From TrEMBL:
<feature type="domain" description="tRNA/rRNA methyltransferase SpoU type">
    <location>
        <begin position="15"/>
        <end position="164"/>
    </location>
</feature>
<protein>
    <submittedName>
        <fullName>tRNA (Cytidine/uridine-2'-O-)-methyltransferase TrmJ</fullName>
    </submittedName>
</protein>
<dbReference type="Pfam" id="PF00588">
    <property type="entry name" value="SpoU_methylase"/>
</dbReference>
<dbReference type="GO" id="GO:0005829">
    <property type="term" value="C:cytosol"/>
</dbReference>
<dbReference type="InterPro" id="IPR004384">
    <property type="entry name" value="RNA_MeTrfase_TrmJ/LasT"/>
</dbReference>
<dbReference type="GO" id="GO:0002128">
    <property type="term" value="P:tRNA nucleoside ribose methylation"/>
</dbReference>
<comment type="similarity">
    <text>Belongs to the class IV-like SAM-binding methyltransferase superfamily. RNA methyltransferase TrmH family.</text>
</comment>
<dbReference type="InterPro" id="IPR029028">
    <property type="entry name" value="Alpha/beta_knot_MTases"/>
</dbReference>
<dbReference type="InterPro" id="IPR001537">
    <property type="entry name" value="SpoU_MeTrfase"/>
</dbReference>
<dbReference type="GO" id="GO:0008173">
    <property type="term" value="F:RNA methyltransferase activity"/>
</dbReference>
<keyword id="KW-0489">Methyltransferase</keyword>
<dbReference type="InterPro" id="IPR029026">
    <property type="entry name" value="tRNA_m1G_MTases_N"/>
</dbReference>
<keyword id="KW-0808">Transferase</keyword>
<dbReference type="GO" id="GO:0003723">
    <property type="term" value="F:RNA binding"/>
</dbReference>
<keyword id="KW-0949">S-adenosyl-L-methionine</keyword>
Amino acid sequence: MSTESSTSSDTRAPVVILVEPQMGENIGMAARAMANFALPEMRLVAPRDGWPNPAATATAAGATHLLESATVFPDTRAAIADLTLVYATTARERGQMKRVLGPKEAVAEARPAIAGGGRVGILFGREREGLWNDEIALADAILTYPVDPAFPSLNLAQAVLLLGYEWFSQSQEGALPFAEVERVPASREMVVSFFDFLEAELDARGFYPPEKRTTMTRNMRDMFLRRGLSEQEVRTFRGVASTLMRSPRKLAGDEPAA
């Protein structure tokens, strides 16, 4: 278990501060959310059931390193003492004269603050009652989420997850972890040649009613061209069509033709 004297030195991301969390399971799930989005430091303020908590380990799903390095503080003031910018999360209007930001705006503000050498923390309150007004008064701004006002309460881990997603998304400039497999576009000559082949075979089999042939061929070409075919896709379609248009094989057990 970490103590106040072993505060993490990783200052590249916001610190997640859970104030008097009541259930170890929620602490573990919050750690998992932090690991998903590269938030490396968890601080705990007077967890109800003490620390460490086996229930947290059970729900961390591989993020136990964050639990092992978590720092425990006796109160909120001590937990934020070394920070230079603090946001307090709440789902309710508290009547305090503070700026109110959504996760996107808060992260956009926190990123340059961290880059400039500042330390940023996000306060998350108790599962049942959230943060107290006196705790919110210690923060620079309020962080709230755009949720349905008829049901605004979020699970503790969900709140951490949403903040983490916004942090990581902006850090990666929206880049996804992997991209679509590169497709080599088919040349127009290759595609038109396939159309000529397909339409000739369909003509030979009487597929088109004479009065509808022009419209049907045009519509079919539109269907294939709507997506943009790759070379491999054209080869596959042509192979499928060639196979279907061959004379059917004689099935086992068929009687020979008279």
